[in-house]
Amino acid sequence: MGGLLLAFLPDNFLVILLIFVGIALIFGIFSRHKAFNFVKIIVIFALLSPFLYAIFDQLPAWLLILIMIGFIFSIARVLLNALFGKGATDQFVGQVMFALFAMPFRIIGNILRRRR
User: Fold this and answer.
1) Count of domains in the chain?
2) Exposed e or buried b per residue across 56-93, where buried means at least 16 C-beta atoms within 10 angstroms of its C-beta
3) Which pTM value belongs to this model?
């Protein structure tokens, strides 16, 4: 998930992230392994960002809207996971997915029920 969030950051912010990773490594917030993995992800996105911009420029507007909706949902899930924990987030997402799946059937059922 962190990689997806890094893909949407501006290029200038990647340098600041490298500085924060170094400071976190110095103070012991990150382990050496986690810091090197984070730096690898930052370098990969710095190298791939021109290609990502070219791809996103060629996509139609409706597909960009769907991608942004998915991005918003993934950020919401990360925030819920940070606030309430993994179990509660999984339960909540399951309930929301069931409600979204059942909504068209309930709408059709309500329309048919009113006709009688």
Assistant:
1) 1
2) eeeeeeeeeeeeeeeeeeeeebeebbeeeeeeebeeee
3) 0.54
